[in-house]
Design a protein that fits this description.
With 378 residues, the chain is α+β, with helices and mostly antiparallel strands. It contains 20 helices and four strands. Belongs to the short-chain fatty acyl-CoA assimilation regulator (ScfR) family.
Length: 378
């Protein structure tokens, strides 16, 4: 089947416009001349096989989409997502989101190929009563994940993945965006957490996006913006609070009405939440009054006290720094290890591995060393 050049040109232009890139931007990034790119977009010239691969890599999509004559983009929800963002996404953010969607699609493929795609709980099994009450829904989810009502969730990102939610932390330039939820056409439920934020805020954002995956699954996208209050966002916040700080746990905290500042900060750090989130949770549970809540909200957990489940203290400082940079690109331990497992099992090639890890083939050895893996090809 020959390629319909006009359809191909529309796809190339569609991706470029969606990412808010000029033809000069694409030319500079890909090394393909501007006049030649223009001829591709207008359907006057057919790209070579190598050029198709270069453009597919630049736009973070499957090259098969470009060489087919299908007219519908695999990420058609993306434009809906940008509209939902109310003009908040910069061109760099759009590129980051395109890569996030690519990671989600790759992760879903690998989980399916390696027979690891079964989640611990089907979110559709929540009852009408639980769906009407965010705290009850959080309690049911905690039970399904194996947590008692007085245990804390150590790694909320893994909790999201255990529920079948593809979860990535990715750095976005706009600090007003805490996270977003997308129903991907092939990968399913996907959540992005803005890793530019404080690490405890990121934990809350992950739980917040989990709520959107539960309560707003009928909506293709949801963008969580700071200081935007509506019914959906309030419900998601209530769920996140109940998931991370169950009332049964809060009620066991001794003498919360008479805390010193140091004690309030200590308990916020134990719960791995901000003082603001803890203050509101205690007030909602009627364990403290409004005045004390306002005071706790004004406090902050020092950065040096905080811990990140995806950057354990067992790593050297150098390893932590390198992995932190990779997390900003969306490359979690879970995803990276999954990619190397895919290579070991023959699911993906060495070249596909470097694409999946957003790196060049020459950078794979360093990544393998960092994650204690070997590059093995059958």
């Amino acid at each position: 089947m020959s390629i319909n050049l006009q359809t191909l040109g529309n796809k190339l232009k569609g991706y470029r416009v969606q990412l808010a890139q000029s033809a000069a931007d694409v030319a500079q990034a890909t090394g393909i001349g501007g006049e030649r790119l223009s001829a591709f977009e207008t359907g006057q010239l057919e790209p070579s096989g190598d050029e198709i691969l270069i453009l597919a890599d630049h736009f973070r999509c499957d090259f098969h989409y470009f060489i087919s004559n299908e007219r519908v983009a695999p990420f058609e929800e993306t434009e809906v997502l940008y509209r939902a963002g109310q003009g908040e996404f910069t061109p760099a953010d759009r590129q980051a989101i395109q890569e996030f969607l690519y990671l989600c699609d790759t992760e879903a493929m690998l989980l399916e190929a390696l027979n690891r795609s079964k989640s611990k709980f089907d979110l559709w099994k929540l009852t009408a009563s639980e769906l009407a009450n965010p705290s009850e829904a959080a309690k049911r989810i905690r039970t399904a994940l194996g947590y008692s009502d007085i245990e804390l969730i150590a790694d909320v990102y893994q909790a999201c993945r255990d529920l079948g939610l593809h979860t990535f932390r990715r750095k976005l330039g706009n600090s007003r965006i805490s996270g977003l939820f997308v129903t991907h056409p092939t990968a399913g439920k996907c959540a992005l957490v803005n890793s530019s934020e404080d690490i405890y805020r990121q934990r809350f954002s992950a739980a917040h996006e989990m709520a959107h995956a539960i309560f707003d699954a009928d909506e293709p996208v949801s963008v969580s913006l700071k200081n935007v209050q509506n019914e959906r966002e309030t419900r998601a916040n209530k769920f996140a609070s109940a998931l991370l700080m169950p009332r049964s746990f809060l009620e066991r905290i001794p003498d919360s009405k008479n805390w010193t500042d140091a004690k309030a900060i200590e308990w916020a750090n134990r719960l791995k939440v901000s003082c603001s989130a803890l203050g509101y949770a205690l007030k909602t549970a009627r364990l403290i009054n409004s005045q004390l809540c306002d005071h706790i909200i004004s406090l902050k957990v020092p950065k040096e006290m905080k811990s990140d489940p995806e950057l354990p203290a067992s790593l050297t400082q150098g390893e932590q720094n390198r992995k932190a940079n990779l997390l900003h690109l969306g490359l979690s331990d879970f995803y990276v290890q999954l990619c190397f497992d895919g290579l070991r099992e023959g699911v993906i090639s060495l070249g596909r591995l470097s694409e999946a890890l957003l790196c060049t083939p020459s950078e794979l050895s360093e990544l393998a060393s960092l994650y204690k893996r070997t590059i093995h090809v059958s």
